[in-house]
Amino acid sequence: MSSRAEKIWNYVILTVMAVVVLWPVATFVTAALSPDRAGRPTGEIQWDNFVTAWNNAEFSRSMLVSLTITVAVAVLGVLLALLGGYAFGVLGVLGDKVFFPLVLLGMMISLEAIIVPLYYQFRALGLTDNLFGIILIHVGMGVPFGIFWMRAAFRTLPRGIFESAEMDGAGPFRMLWSIAVPNLLPAVYTFILLSFMWTWNDYFLSLVFLHGDNQTATVALGVFQGRHVTEVNLMAAGGLIVAAPVLILYVLFQRKFISGMLAGAVKE
C-alpha cells in the first residue's frame, strides 16, 4: 500500500510541476496564434502572425547570420574542447596542475567586466561589425567550459583501453578519434547543444559588436518588439520564430542530451 501511495503522490507532484512549467509556454503559443493584438485567446487561429513577424523583422537575413555564427562556434568549440580535454584528461600535459586552473579562470570572468576593453581592442584590429570577430569571442568564452566538460568525460574512460591501444601502436590522435570520441558521443552532443543554445540566444555581444546587415536574430527580435510594443500577438510570434531552432535541436537530441548530462556525475 505504501509503495502504491508513493507512486500516486509522485504522479501528482510531477503533474503539478508539468502544469506549472507548460502553462506559460501554452499561454505564449496561444498569444502567437491569436488574431487579437493583445494576445487574448479568441477561439480563432491566425497563422499569418508568423508571416507578418517574419517579413516585418526581416528574419531571413538575421536568422542566416545567427546560424552562420552559431554553427561556426559549435564546430570550432567542440574541436578545441576535445583536444584540450584530451590533453588534460588523458595525456597529462606538462604543467597541467598550473594550466588547468588558468583554463578554469576563464569560466569565472564576467563578460560585463571585459566588454569595454574587448570592444576597443577588436575595433583596433578591425574585427567589430565582423562575423569572424564575434565568432572568435564566442569560441574564446566557451572553450574553458568545453575543456572542463570534456576533461571530466575523458576521465570516466578506463585507462586500460588507452594503454592497450598504445601497445598496439596507436598514436595519440588515433586513440582520440577512434577510441575516446566514439565512447563519449553523449557528452560531445551535450556540449554541442549547449554551445549552440548559448551562442544562438546571445543578445549582448551581438548588440555591441554587430550592426546593420550583420544583425543577429535576437537583436532583430529586440528591434521588432520595440516597434510592436502594443501588438503582443506579433511579439509572441517573433519570439517563437527565434526560439524554434533551439527547440527543434533539443527535441531531436534530447535523449543524447539527457544521457550526456547524467554522465556529468563523474569519478575523479
From TrEMBL:
<dbReference type="Pfam" id="PF00528">
    <property type="entry name" value="BPD_transp_1"/>
</dbReference>
<keyword id="KW-0472">Membrane</keyword>
<keyword id="KW-1003">Cell membrane</keyword>
<feature type="transmembrane region" description="Helical">
    <location>
        <begin position="64"/>
        <end position="91"/>
    </location>
</feature>
<keyword id="KW-0813">Transport</keyword>
<feature type="transmembrane region" description="Helical">
    <location>
        <begin position="175"/>
        <end position="200"/>
    </location>
</feature>
<feature type="transmembrane region" description="Helical">
    <location>
        <begin position="12"/>
        <end position="33"/>
    </location>
</feature>
<keyword id="KW-0812">Transmembrane</keyword>
<comment type="similarity">
    <text>Belongs to the binding-protein-dependent transport system permease family.</text>
</comment>
<dbReference type="InterPro" id="IPR035906">
    <property type="entry name" value="MetI-like_sf"/>
</dbReference>
<keyword id="KW-1133">Transmembrane helix</keyword>
<protein>
    <submittedName>
        <fullName>Carbohydrate ABC transporter permease</fullName>
    </submittedName>
</protein>
<feature type="transmembrane region" description="Helical">
    <location>
        <begin position="132"/>
        <end position="154"/>
    </location>
</feature>
<feature type="domain" description="ABC transmembrane type-1">
    <location>
        <begin position="63"/>
        <end position="253"/>
    </location>
</feature>
<dbReference type="InterPro" id="IPR000515">
    <property type="entry name" value="MetI-like"/>
</dbReference>
<feature type="transmembrane region" description="Helical">
    <location>
        <begin position="234"/>
        <end position="253"/>
    </location>
</feature>
<feature type="transmembrane region" description="Helical">
    <location>
        <begin position="98"/>
        <end position="120"/>
    </location>
</feature>
